[in-house]
Design brief:
Number of domains: 2
Strand order of the largest sheet: 1-2-3
Strand content: 15-25%
Largest sheet: 3 strands, antiparallel
Number of helices: 3
Radius of gyration: 15 Å
Shape: elongated
Bound molecules: zinc ion
Amino acid sequence: MSKAEQIYIDNYKAGLSVEKIVAKYGCPPGYIKKIRNLVREAGVLRSRGAKRTTTFEDGRKCSKCGEVFPITAQYFYRDKHEVEGYKNKCKKCCGTM
Ligand SMILES: [Zn+2]
């Protein structure tokens, strides 16, 4: 593990979100995924508690209707607070499709 990677993990352990770490160190946007993998490998990834969403290899199960859709803007609205960057309800259940 590189020194930079250790710093990211330490920051995460200190309570910073992955997004905040990326912003703090001015990392490229792709680092969100990278750091998330890093903390997962280090075994320190925090669970999101009640906001659990079933995620599949190539799709996401809508938390309301239970249907599985590809995780794309065609089926889900963007939500940067969510893990994959999309809401956990499909567009149809958000009332517009
Ligand atoms: Zn739905």
